Amino acid sequence: MALAIFDLDNTLLGGDSDHAWGQFLVDHGIVDAKAYQQANDYFYQQYQQGGLDIQEFLAFSLKPLASHSKQQLDQWHQQFMLETIAPMRLPKADALLQQHRDRGDFLLIITATNLFVTAPIAASLGVDHILATIPEFIDGTYTGKVEGTPCFQQGKVERLQTWLANSGHTLAGSYFYSDSHNDLPLLEMVEHPYAVDADDILTQHANKQGWPIISLR
To answer: What are the chain's domains?
Structure first.
């Protein structure tokens, strides 16, 4: 059983669920529209350029979770799945997941986007497990803080190594599919790295390394 690892945003999805959740909050009047959208767009641009301060971003993005009940948040997320995530689904991504499933591979999503946003998405995609940034949850309420290491850049490597040590899986024969140069530390660890609808920096690196470059769009 090989490990087939997938980035989520702009890889298995035709968009970014983290940014889209922020836009959902804006569109439904849950947050201050102008200020929140401006900050949401700013952080997304920083992410794309490779200069995101992950702690600063998480302080921003997890704050709404601490401002509402879990029940209310879950209701909003169900609506978010229907309105926003369903149109982002990619038939070619579903087919790729099925291809690995048919081989008997273990399907793992690893994403910087927090677990509140991504766990239902991973469930809908039918993967075996997800590693994501964990929003702290105490006594039935989100605190707005992060639990443990954010699952971003080198943090993805650290979180994966911890999971490997605890799960018994290895990187023998492993695959990793990603669109982002932020994932280069992990792409360089697996046996079969794939650049998927990749940004310019990752595309250049993939060409130099001879990595496959594919599109799921």
So the answer is: 3-214 (3.40.50.1000)
